[in-house]
Amino acid sequence: MAYGKADIKELEEKAKQIRRLIIQMLAEAGSGHPGGSLSAVDLMAALYFSVLQHNPKDPNWPERDRFHMSKGHCCPLWYAVLAESGYFPKEKLLTLRKLGSMLQGHPDRRTPGVDVASGSLGQGLSVALGMSLAAKLDRRNYRVYVLLGDGEIQEGNIWEAAMASSHYKCDNLCAMLDYNGFQIDGKIKDIMNLEPVVAKWQAFGWHTIEIDGHNMKQILSAYAEAETVKGKPSIIIAHTVKGKGVSFMENVVDFHGRAPTKEEAEKALKELE
Amino acid sequence: MEQLYQRDIYGKTLVELGRQNKDIVVLDADLSCSTRTRLFAKEFPGRFFNFGVAEQNMMATAAGLASCGKIVFASTFAIFATGRAWDQVRNSICYNNFNIKIVATHAGLSVGPDGASHQALEDIALMRVIPNMNIIIPCDGPQTRDAVIAAANTEGPFYIRLSRPKVPTIENKGDFKFGKAEVLTQGDDVAIIACGIMIPEALTAVKNLLEKGIKARLINIHTIRPLDSQVLLKAARETRGIIVCEEHTVIGGLSSAVDEIVAENHPTKVIRLGVKNRFGQSGEPADLLKEYNLTSADIEKAAFAIIS
Question: Which of A148, A165, B6, B304 has CB 3.0 to 4.6 Å from B144, enough for a Cys bridge?
Fold first, then answer.
């Protein structure tokens, strides 16, 4: 079952709603990762509410497009998008990180809509590669999307998977790199420089699409372009702002792994009205 | 006595399973000649994926395939399967409880001349500590087939440990049952608990001990997880002591597994024959077993220590 196409304005409104949910759930949990959740909201809103073929009422629909969140610490974003899509009631979001919750601190298969757990960085591109190979084996037309963090691609496993995905010509595979420029210890360029990122992926045999990761029009056209590429995997290198949408969180490294206090959350939610 | 490569049997069994079930997919990391997954690759090229020298990617990709309903066999040498890719095995395979069978060859000292870097002496320990993981160590060629078929037919992650050299076929083992230890010889003086290539050494020891009037009960504990604690505790109760033999460090593997069960339920004398806080080294397998005190003579010595 295809999910309805929403226009850009609607998607932007969805993105704002997702940002609100992220702030609310993190404030309630008292811990978690707001920065990298907020930076990838627009990529994920476009994916789940316009691009992805899925059915929240039947999470195991065999023909569904696959999504895997390789940067698992940003699962508040995934959970918010899944709840907003109707995979489970939004009230559940307030159980994040609590004992017995189906919303674990990092993605886990007990959550409807999560096919594979993640959290240990660098493994998700391989997981997506496996899903892509399975589609080819079963002659199914579904596509596979995977969200990577920029700090995450410092892991060697990523490049093993990058090599293999182009070797096996996985043109049903689309990676999204949330290039917000920060990792937990500081600026990427200071901790472990990734540049030239585009050239690296091209050298590994990937089709690259570089965009402003907060421009909904560019995001949608990037997904559309990736779908037309034959014989190689695609990566959308999305330049984003860590903490996007909340002024006092934007580009503040402290909010990589610290939840907002109740007061901060109130302030943030006002900005997101 | 018939001598077989467990790896040959593994490759042939994969082909057999591949014919029966189109969901079986096989992965390797540039060792398909050695692991014999090449036999499957030849017959089912579309269902075989070589990942080159990249074991971490192989294991995490296996998870993606399994999430789409595939029964995945992933092979490489034991040291790389369990050491190099441990985090992928833990987080992508076992945490998800995926239907993935890691069949690793070239385990233990009997790798021989390649030496310490290639001799996995910690792999059982590394796999045993991860929840959901099942472990089988077949003792010979025919039991390798049984183990591979059992793994294919049982949902969940498996680690199957195979050796590099040819191994003698052990007669009269009875029917293989996953999770159920085999009592190969009866006796109430001492119990010998062994698996893999230690079984032929132990059988020689049992024969020699019998000539000296000592009756040893030899247990082939091919399934390390779930461990057949009933057979172990029966041996602890009915004999004067237990000798554990493993081609592996005495820390964390079979010895530890036996110690844990026995200490908690029926403490008795346990002598551990295994590698003691050392790395391996180059040499012929038979010479290495001598150097590391893992021969039938060492087992006999341990039996006398228990009896006296």
Answer: B6
